[in-house]
Each structure stands twice: as C-alpha cells, then as structure tokens.
Design a protein that fits this description.
heterodimer; A: alpha/beta; FAD/NAD(P)-binding domain; D-Amino Acid Oxidase, Chain A, domain 2; 8-stranded mixed beta sheet; 16 strands; B: mainly beta; Folate-binding fold; 4-stranded antiparallel beta sheet; 1 helix; 6 strands; binds flavin-adenine dinucleotide; FAD/NAD-bd_sf (chain A)
Chain lengths: ~425, ~80
Amino acid sequence: MPFSLLKYGLRSRHVPFRDIPPTPDLKRSYDVVIIGGGGHGLAAAYYLSNVHGIRNVAVLEKGYLAGGNTARNTTTIRSNYMTEESVRFYKEGVELFETMSRDLGFNVMFSQRGQLTLAHSEATLRSFHLRAEMGKHMGTRIEVVDVQTVKELCPHLNLDLGGQHEVMGGLWHADGGTARHDAMAWGYARHAGARGGEIHQRTEVTGFEQAGDRVTHVRTNRGTIAVGQVLQAVGGLNGQVAAMAGIRLPIRCFPLQAMVTQPLKPFLDILVSSANLHTYLVQSSRGEVVIGGGSDPYQLASTRSTLDQKEHLAEGALHLFPFLHKVKLLRQWAGITDMTPDYSPIMGASPLKNYWLDCGWGTWGFKATPVAGKRMAETIATGRVPDVLKPFDLSRFDSFALLNEMGATAASH
Amino acid sequence: MKLLTCPVNGPRNITEFQYLGPVRAADAEQPEQLIEALFYAENPLGVMREWWRHTPSNTVLIAERHTVSDQILATYLPNRKPA
Ligand SMILES: Cc1cc2nc3c(=O)[nH]c(=O)nc-3n(C[C@H](O)[C@H](O)[C@H](O)COP(=O)(O)OP(=O)(O)OC[C@H]3O[C@@H](n4cnc5c(N)ncnc54)[C@H](O)[C@@H]3O)c2cc1C
C-alpha cells in the first residue's frame, strides 16, 4: 500500500476510474445469475470472475447497487461467537477484511480497533467466559477483562458503580473492527465488472421457469434470461424470493434500526456494546457516533423508523455516555432483516439442483460479506459445498441440528 | 405513540403489549407438522394473524396486522372473531 500510494501521488496525470460498471443490455443467457446486488452478491461475483474464471455472470439488483442492508448496517466486524462452527467461519471473514484494501486496491477503511462488550451481571460474565474460551480455542483474540481494564479501554464510559447497570467487567475482542461498507461493495463491483461480470441495477427478479428440479430461466422486469446456475442473496427479502422458486425458508422479517449523531471530537476509539442495555456505539472516522441496538419487537417488512426504538437507543447511549445528552441526531434509518430461528445464516444447497442459497443474514451479515462471497463462489464453481459452510445447510432444521447463536444478534453484541 | 386495542381494556399504548408471534397454520401437537410449526412460521408481506398479550391484565388476544404498512385491522379474543 505505501508504495502504491507514493506512485499514485507522484503520477502527474491521474485518470479517474468508474467504480460502478454501467448497466448493459441483458444477454439471453448467463452461466451464473446472482439475485441481489448487495455486498454478498457482489462479493460472490468478484470471486467467481477473479478467482474461478467464471465470467459470464450477471448480478441482478432491483434497486441501486448495495442500497439494501449493505448500505444500512453499522459495520461491526467480529468473530466472538459462541459455537465452534460460527467462530471458524466468522474468523475467516475477519481475516479477509484484514487484506481487503490491498486485494481490491480500494481503501475500505478497515479499522481493527477492538470491541468491548460490557457485562452488568454475574450471569453475563459467565457466558463471556464461555465465549472467550471458545474463541481462544479457535485462535481468535478474545478475553474477559475486569473493571479496571474496562476503564483503561474506554475512559469516558459511565461505569455506574453500584447502580442499576453496574459494569462488572467485559469481553474484549481485539480482532473486532469496522470498515466502510459502500467502499467494499464498490470495490467488489469494480473488479467483477473488469473481468466480464455484469451488474444490472433496477433489474428485479419477478419469477422463475423450472424444469424438474432445476431453474431454467429467471424472469425480470427487463426480460427473461436462461441460466446455468442461480445464487440468491437478497437480504431482507430472502423468504419472498425463495418462495417464487418454490423454496420455503425458515425466515421472518424484522426491522433493525440505527442512527448517527452530529460529528464530535474523537473520544471513543473502540467499539462498545452493552448486553443489558441492548445498545452499541462506535465513533466513525468523521466523528459521528453510530448507535445501534436490538431488533424491533414484532414482524414487519417496512424500513420506517419508530420513535420508540430511537428513544430506546438514545437511552442506552446516554446511560453509557451521559455527556452525549445535548448532541443532535443527524440521521436515522431502518433495514429489513431476514431472521432465522437459530440466529445463523442459511448457506449452500437448496431443494433445486442449480439454485444456491446465501440467506438468513439477519442482523449480522455485513462482517460475513467477504467470506460468504468467497465460499459461495467456490460452491458454485466446484458444485461442492466446502466443509466450513456445511453446518449452515438449510436441511439442519429438518434434523434439529440447529446452530444456536445468540452471540450473533445485535442485541447481545 | 402507537396504539393497539385490547378487546378487554380498550386502546392502549403498544408498549403495554408483548408480541407472541404469528398464528401458525401447522399444529405442533401433530408429529408430522412439528418442524413446520417450530421453524417455518408465517411471514407474509400482507395481512397476518398474530398473538399478542396485554401484559398488565394478562389478556391474550389475536391481532390482524398488515406487515408492510403496519396497520392494525382488527383485534379480538381467540376464537371470538367479530362478524
Ligand atoms: C440497521 C442495521 C445494522 C446492522 N449492523 C450490522 C453490523 O454491525 N454488523 C454486521 O455484520 N451486520 C449488520 N447488519 C446486517 C447486515 O447489514 C446484512 O446482514 C448484510 O448487509 C446482508 O447483505 P446482503 O448482500 O445479503 O443483503 P443486502 O445488502 O440487503 O442486498 C440484497 C439486495 O437484494 C436486492 N433485492 C431484493 N429483492 C430482489 C429481487 N426480487 N430482484 C433483484 N434484487 C432484489 C435488494 O434491493 C438489495 O439491494 C445490520 C443490518 C441493519 C439493517
């Protein structure tokens, strides 16, 4: 990176490049059609074209590129999960973020500043010990820390000693961090486009034509296309799109909300979350404080924010940092999340032979974008589901082999 | 403030209620429907029948709500759907 930066700085004539490839006419057929131009779909297109040499690929996006949950998330990247299967998978995801700027030649502003989750009870501390031991066993940097260390990691935090939410310790995950979500999506799109991958914005999949247990054609608002293989990665609408292909998914839609404050002087250089208060905060490189929390309490497929939930987030934020009380909110928003019963994604095969799933990402899928894209591309290219994805197969619900991952939700970050 | 009408207590702030999930077509008591009842809950983009509980009075009720517009169309006690 430093050398290329120098070269870039010294070059007298810089020709600007276009990040997002223009939308061409649809061809009559593609080897692979990816439904959903969010981070997951774009990452898969990138790996298919750049690693596996499969170039006749179209990404179909009904809105604009990466305007779904990829644009709406709070960009927490971490691998401090509960189950061995999840830690293994998310750890590979964090590692891909570590080299992403270099791999894509695109600054995704990955900042591995560490994540601290606060415990306000003995019970939470006990569960943290379990997560720390599992993490260490799998080779992630994670440990339980005492109040003194919490103070050192986050000097401005209100510890509320003796109060209702007394801080009793925390889970420190040094590998945790954030990255610029849009940059990641644009980087993948640019490289996929450079190798022949086509990205079709404003192209909505409206149905399928099937023969036996295969999809033969994908219907869109711009015409019908013949397909070799299909990957579905449509974020909040995964249940609905799968239903058009005749596949039932164990998914329910819930909105997840977040907000940012006006920019402030830097005071918070780590990610901090509270399991009790269902709130987490991170200060962006622009100085804004990004505040997120738990999902809305009932099923909804709408991206409208609610006052209740915003008040709840503000309450949690003020509890942790009372001096924020006069700070103004700059923006607030919501995204629809596709929640599974065991808080784990559904990746791999579907009941149809040439239709692959990358679904059920709920509130936790941003951090998984590179690894899901890489492994789903591998699956499509080789026709074989790699071991690291096998635990996430749709069939786990039929055999009660659930991957209970309460460590996955935003609420218990 | 969003309101939900409890069939016993009248319109109340929705924060007084607990959401208990969709009314499921599959029956958890039937072994062949168990997986369906446990994992494949209703998730329509449209009107859904769902269980709610008014916590102060412990009244369990059914609401019909549109899952895109969030409009509540009716609330009633189980098995007492008004004509
Ligand atoms: C407020 C909020 C905070 C979050 N915070 C975090 C976090 O801190 N860390 C984390 O890891 N995760 C977080 N998440 C979750 C994360 O954002 C998602 O899991 C992830 O972005 C999913 O990526 P995706 O590419 O699968 O889906 P998306 O980015 O949603 O992309 C799917 C695309 O499919 C398109 N589409 C839908 N239907 C069709 C159709 N019929 N035809 C064509 N295209 C279609 C949509 O327009 C959309 O652009 C958060 C989510 C929200 C809402």
